[in-house]
Structures are given as structure tokens and as C-alpha cells.
Description:
Blueprint: H1 10-17, E1 24-28, H2 40-49, E2 54-58, H3 66-85
Parallel strand pairs: 1-2
Amino acid sequence: MYTEGTHAMGEVIRELNRTSLDIHYLVLQSNYINRQVMSSELLAVLKGWIKQGTVHVNDTLVMGSQIRLDQRAEELCAVIRQVVAS
């Protein structure tokens, strides 16, 4: 998650906060390749920015494993199904 620079998310989230949309943020807490994980502090920053919407955090550690990647994909599909059904 970028908090600074050309890919910073803060302004985009502030704009989304101004809408009346029912926004759902899907956060993948770890990357695909290794054990690099979004810290709880950074996740708190993201949640602090979001005033309008719901945050769904997936903490499945993939570490380059196709099996774990497939597991995480199915978990995300379940969240999306739940959101769409409601």
C-alpha cells in the first residue's frame, strides 16, 4: 500500500469517502512471493482513511504456493459472493 508518491491511495480514498456508494475494499495482507505482510500499523492507517465503506482483510500467506494462491482466491470469491448477495 502506497501512502506517498505517484501511487499514493489517500486522495482516491478521500474521493470515494465523498460518494454515496457502498464501497467494499478487499485487502490482501500478504504478497505472492514471500512472507512480506502489511503491518497492523499500516492496516490501521488504511482503515483510518476509510470513512465510507467496508474493509475486508485477507491474511492468507501465499509465499509462492499455487495451492495457497488458489485458497486465497476462493476466500476472496466467497467474500465477493457474500457482498453481492446482500
